[in-house]
């Protein structure tokens, strides 16, 4: 199967990025080094081409009402021009995907979904939409998405003409806000969201020319191009879940310790009847290693060396220079002594169990 | 930056290099391998005295995002291990041909015949990149 390309594909190749297939797209994995890219985002500003992500536009008199019914988190009550993170569940509570819904108004909502789940999500959402007065459009191929992340991101957005200086200084565009901006005749959507734990923005651009121009200008003004490898390290350092790892088709958000995203007080949403009385089978744990690097699929053991769960994501943390991981542990086997061990090939290493994220990003 | 394929070394298709002097082979991973792996951050080394067969995994090298087995180009006994790399795995990125990983006392020097010369190894890499 021919891989899809983003509009910036040639730019990545010119920068000598390592490209690899991801969710049917040819995507930049790294440009210089993962260490350099992660550090740039934590200390300055990094730019990511995440145009593989899917975008669905929901319009019509019941747009916000429909999205509120579709997702487990609160949406209808949320103010205009705000973004909401939420799982998307089936009636039996299992997770189809996790997404960000951007409320432009009660009549217009943009949903951003994982690239690997675009078709599955579209089939599910369009089927559910039949009972509502809404029009659904798959705009995944119309929008490019740039993520501009790091403490210097606001300054860079001002230079790009997307943010105004007073919006930043007076904080009138806080974390998880969105807005439409008219830039050289193009309507772009800007959100103060991201997947790195840092302050930052995501820019949805409908014009290939504008996307290319923004990318080049961002680099000229100090933005470091960052690939998907750095993005994964960044999200794991701040313990954001990733679909296909911490979340999957066969578990509920409650199993992935995402209770805060399931709002049983809402009048109705898909999966509510099930989730309201469901006792989770798993608990998501954060485990760090001083020696060795935990990886997806490694066994998590208790002090009696019994298997109690599996690592769902693991890497070396660039900021902490140690192994970090998220894992799902069977709730019944959660050790009372809170001692956890990770098996790496023939060796067993004791892990540090943490309740707080490994790294605190600078957002908010 | 172009990758190095030194002509005095022999290579495996799995991207190890080897230099045989009398019956002891010095083994590391190639410039192509370190470049493909990216930032190397961790290495798991075998014990001195371990017996290996040609093609056996004798250790593991990890970059931030990946785990790769190291395969022995020769059968024999591991007589020396470069312990310095345990705290400085990034040296493999910086100088892959100076950062030897193990030395193997080989059982049969004839196994040298099965390895690639630098030209053949280079074309193997060209096909796989």
Specify the structural class of chain B.
Answer: alpha+beta
Rg estimate of chain A, integer Å: 21 Å
Question: What is the CATH topology classification name of the domain at 9-51 and 143-237 in chain A?
Answer: Gyrase A, domain 2
Q: Largest sheet of chain A, if any?
A: 6 strands, mixed
Q: Can you put this structure into words, describing what you see?
A:
- The complex is a heterodimer of chains A (about 375) and B (about 130).
- Among the domains of chain A are: about 10-50 and about 145-235, Probable tRNA modification gtpase trme, domain 1 (Gyrase A, domain 2, 2-Layer Sandwich); about 280-355, Beta Barrel (Elongation Factor Tu (Ef-tu), domain 3), CATH 2.40.30.110.
- Helices cover about 20% and strands about 35% of the residues of chain A.
- Chain A has helices at about 10-15, 35-45, 65-70, 120-130, 155-160, 165-170, 210-220, 230-235, 270-275; strands at about 20, 25-30, 45-50, 55-60, 80-90, 95-105, 110-115, 135-140, 145-150, 180-185, 185-190, 200-205, 225, 280-290, 300, 305-315, 320-330, 340-345, 345-355.
- In chain A, the strands form 4 sheets. Chain A has a 6-stranded mixed beta sheet with strand order 10-11-12-9-3-13.
- The longest helix of chain A is centred in the middle third of the chain and has 13 residues, at about 210-220.
- Chain A starts with 8 loop residues before the first helix and ends in a 10-residue tail after the last strand.
- Chain B has a single domain, classed as RNA polymerase II/Efflux pump adaptor protein, barrel-sandwich hybrid domain (OB fold (Dihydrolipoamide Acetyltransferase, E2P)).
- A 6-stranded antiparallel beta sheet of chain B has the order 1-2-3-9-8-5. In chain B, strands 4-6-7 form a 3-stranded antiparallel beta sheet.
- Chain B is globular.
- The longest helix of chain B has 11 residues, at about 120-130.
- In chain B, strand 1 and strand 2 (about 15-20) form a beta hairpin.
- Chain B is built from 3 helices and 9 strands; from the N terminus they run βββαβββββαβα.
- Classes of the chains: A alpha+beta (about 375), B alpha+beta (about 130).
């Amino acid at each position: 199967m021919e891989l899809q390309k983003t509009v910036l594909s040639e730019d990545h190749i010119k920068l000598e990025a390592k490209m690899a297939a991801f969710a049917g797209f040819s995507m930049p994995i790294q440009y210089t080094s993962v260490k350099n890219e992660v550090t740039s985002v934590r200390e300055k500003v990094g730019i990511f081409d995440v145009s593989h992500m899917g975008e669905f536009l929901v319009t019509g008199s019941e747009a916000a009402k429909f999205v509120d019914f579709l997702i487990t988190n609160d949406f209808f009550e949320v103010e205009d021009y705000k973004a909401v993170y939420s799982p998307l569940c089936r009636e039996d509570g299992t997770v189809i995907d996790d997404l960000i819904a951007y409320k432009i108004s009660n009549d217009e909502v943009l949903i951003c979904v994982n690239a690997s789940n675009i078709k599955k999500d579209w089939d599910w959402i369009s089927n559910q939409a039949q009972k509502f007065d809404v029009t659904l459009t798959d705009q995944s191929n119309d929008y490019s998405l740039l993520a501009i992340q790091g403490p210097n991101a606001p300054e860079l957005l001002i230079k790009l003409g997307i943010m105004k200086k007073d919006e930043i200084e007076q904080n009138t565009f806080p974390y998880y806000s969105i807005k439409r901006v008219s830039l050289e005749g193009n309507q772009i959507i800007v959100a103060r969201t991201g997947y790195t734990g840092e302050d930052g923005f995501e820019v949805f651009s409908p014009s290939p020319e504008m996307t290319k121009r923004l990318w080049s200008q961002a680099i000229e003004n100090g933005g470091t191009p960052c690939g998907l490898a750095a993005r994964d390290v960044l999200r794991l350092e701040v313990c954001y879940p990733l679909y296909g790892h911490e979340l999957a088709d066969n578990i509920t958000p409650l199993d992935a310790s995402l209770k805060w995203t399931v709002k049983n007080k809402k009048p109705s949403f898909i999966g509510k009847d099930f989730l309201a009385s469901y006792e989770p089978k798993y608990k998501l744990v954060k485990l760090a290693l001083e020696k060795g690097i935990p990886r997806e699929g490694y066994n998590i053991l208790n002090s009696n060396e019994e298997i109690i769960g599996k690592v769902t994501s693991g890497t070396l943390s660039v900021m902490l220079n140690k192994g970090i991981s998220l894992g799902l542990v069977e709730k019944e086997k959660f050790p009372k002594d809170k001692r956890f061990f990770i098996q790496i090939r023939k060796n067993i290493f004791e892990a540090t169990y943490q309740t707080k994220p490994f790294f605190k990003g600078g957002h908010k | 930056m172009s990758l190095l394929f030194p002509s005095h070394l022999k290579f495996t298709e799995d991207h190890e290099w080897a230099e045989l002097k009398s019956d002891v082979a010095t083994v590391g991973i190639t410039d192509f391998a370190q470049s493909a792996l990216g930032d190397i951050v961790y290495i798991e080394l075998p014990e001195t005295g371990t017996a290996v067969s040609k093609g056996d995994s004798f250790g593991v090298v990890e970059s931030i995002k990946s785990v790769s087995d190291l395969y022995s180009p020769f059968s024999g006994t591991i007589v020396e291990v470069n312990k310095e790399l345990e705290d400085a795995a990034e040296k493999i990125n910086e100088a892959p041909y100076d950062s030897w990983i193990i030395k193997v006392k080989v059982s049969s020097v004839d196994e040298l015949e099965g390895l690639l010369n630098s030209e053949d190894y280079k074309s193997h890499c060209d096909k796989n990149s």
